[in-house]
UniProtKB/TrEMBL annotation:
Stored Gene3D superfamilies: 2,3-Dihydroxybiphenyl 1,2-Dioxygenase, domain 1
Protein name: VOC family protein
Region Disordered, annotated ranges: 89-116
Organism: Novosphingobium album
């Protein structure tokens, strides 16, 4: 049902490096790019992710409570993606680990305090 999710950014180059690295681990690359917008995914595949400066010209701000989950193939890939995200400027919102009945996840954000 979801075609893509777009995230706002105030630093397109930094955001692009972050998603190039994370999406590269997931086996997908850029599928669309112009001066304002970059999208990653698989043409004709599942939902993609886009990064853009807000169209209204105002600064991008955090949507409190908004979360986008990227599907990994196994626990080892969750760990690798978490490490890649941290290495590319992400910050830890919860280290990799079990989150309930057969669900294994990690949380990173781009502008929060790092995990201790």
């Amino acid at each position: 049902m979801i075609g893509y999710v777009t995230l706002g950014t105030n630093d397109r180059d930094r955001g692009a490096a972050f998603y190039d690295a994370v999406c590269g681990e997931l086996g997908v690359g850029r599928i669309m790019e112009n001066e304002q917008f970059i999208a990653w995914g698989v043409p004709g595949g599942g939902a993609g992710i886009g990064l853009t400066a807000p169209f209204d010209g105002k600064p991008a701000t955090v949507g409190n409570g908004v979360m986008v989950a990227l599907e990994a193939k196994d626990e080892a890939q969750v760990q690798r993606i978490h490490e890649i995200a941290l290495a590319h400027g992400g910050t830890c919102e919860g280290p990799p680990g079990p989150r309930g009945d057969g669900f294994y996840a990690a949380k990173t954000e781009t502008e929060r305090e790092r995990c201790r």
